[in-house]
Sequence to fold (588 residues):
Amino acid sequence: MFPIYKKELQSFFYTPFAYAMAALFMLLFSLSFSTGIAQIEETNTWAFSFTEMFYSVILYFIFLIPILTMRTFADERKNGTEVLLMTSPVSTAKIVIAKFLANITVYLFMLAGTVVFPIITSMKGEVVVSQLICAYIGIFCWGAMYIALGMLISSFMETPVIAAIVGEVIMFGLLFVDDLANTPFISQYPKLQSVIYAFAAQPRFAYFSEGFIRLSDLVFFASAIIVLLVWTYITIEKRRWNRG
Amino acid sequence: MITIENLTKYYGNNRAVNHISFTINDNEILGFLGPNGAGKSTTMNMIAGYLPMSDGTVTIYGADITKEPGKAKRNIGYLPEIPPVYPDMKVKEYLSFCAGLKRVPRGERKNEIERVMKLLKIKDVEGKLIRNLSKGYKQRVGFAQALLGNPKFLILDEPTVGLDPNQVAEVRAIIKDLKNEHSVIFSSHILSEVSAICDRVVIINKGDIRAIDTIENLERSFVNSLVLHLKVKGSKSKTASIIETTKGVKEITSIDDEGNDIYSFTVQLEGDADAIRDSIMDDCLKNHVSIIEIFTDKPNLENVFIELINRPVKKSGLQELLDETPDESEADAEDQGEEEKEEE
Fold:
């Protein structure tokens, strides 16, 4: 399992890939940071929470995570190296987990860069640390779930580019699940509304960014990740059966 | 010992491999021979544990590939048809990854990588990106990967494809040397290659085994029989009955419709070929069947191969042959034969 994890990380860090991703992420983050500062009114203190910022950061993820995960399985298939992994003594489940952990590591690397903003803020103002930590936990959970989703999409696809495009569309669509639940049409059916609402990740993230850690939200993200990874595993196994 | 029993693979309703069984003994090179699309790669993939089988078992040194995949796969080195290399990795980096994947103990990895690089003569490209290597080098890097960890059983799917003649000779020599410590199954559609290095061959076509034997035995069994080729213009059934009634004819193995009332027959003979030929010629003239071409032929190894792969699994009677219009697969098999001659 470890060799695969290491190889995945190498493919991110020995190429400009991870750095370009992190740089792009930082650029977008700093843009919203400076916009956030510009909006602070004179009467306010410098102690602004990062809630809103993290909220807007979510949008950037939609564009970055599919690019991060697109190669996970589609590339193996394209290179014909899937055979190598599948005929090694490493089980499919371990392959999936190793790749998930590698993606998470790159994601943490991207997130780590953003810590610089609260540090700068704390030099001239005040940062509500507890809330910040909550926001980071929330954004980590959200990202991990999207990585699992991106991997699933990659396991369906033959080429990385298609995996990325499909990933963008689906993840973008998922942002609006709660909006969908709140449309007048769906509201007519409260039961349907509550079912759809249960799948919305956005409101759960909102709790985190406001400084609440709720067990139900943690369970939501954890179970979503497990379901998506198991689904990925099944997809890969199924493809072996159907290969023509 | 590796035992393959009743191995079957369906793709939907399409049967790619049909209940094949054979064994690979210790320190043996088994040739796996068949035209393109015969089911060779599918079988190899199933033996290696990449493709699940629809039916049957593969046992590798006592471990069933589906029940104990981890244990079975540890004894396997597999070189698929397309070498499974990462274009963005350097050769040494790639081999080091594969060594880890195959659970080569950490302390031995370095020596092991050096050993396989030396064996396949890829030491000079160890620092190069695989992307930039020629096809021959990529193939050898893939081969090196299969040898890592010194697995007892090697599955090599067309290892010499895309190599230049010099490299082909080198790779063949390596495979021959491997026999001392390994069991090898080695697929090819080139007969001369298989006959040069294999102890036994399994000949497969359209998912069925056509023969399992040593090269010598295969040749011997066909050397005594002669083949007569006859091309006529006229009635197919009349010609067939002439041939059938001639003394010394064993059987008609194929009838091809070449259009414009021209048919070519392949006939197996026993006894004095010249006398049989003359007798058939006389009878044809008497019955107003005009002969375009007639000659007798001694089967060489190439003919044996073509004969074996084209031979129907169940021997069809004469009527069946007469009714049968030449289908695509026969044309394919002929193309295949020609290709092989060219390659040689």
